Amino acid sequence: MRSRTTFYIALGRLLMVDLGEDDEKFESFMAPITSTMDSVASQLVAVGNNAFQQEETKRTLVGLCRDIRGLAFAFNSKSSYMMLFDWIYPTYTSVLLRADRMVVP
Length: 105
Hints:
Elements: H1 3-19, H2 23-47, H3 55-74, H4 78-88, H5 93-103
Helix pairs in contact: 1-3, 2-3
GO molecular function: nuclear export signal receptor activity
Protein name: Exportin 7
Subcellular location: Cytoplasm; Nucleus
């Protein structure tokens, strides 16, 4: 699980070689992460605050955070970092904030 951050740092750096400011490439690269984040968000809506009591949801969320952390480390230009920020905010910020309040004691 801890290798995911390193893996996404490497993937992010490879993406940066070819990315430039191409939003379509970024969106297609983020598609698996987007679908997983949408799944966690729907679990949160369906189950409510008890969603983070389930171990599978916790592991999924921790993995997503490791993936996003790896990408944030790899994206070292303003345009690429802003693409990542625009992806997170405002769509997934509420999920991450609720997760922080629920998972961290």
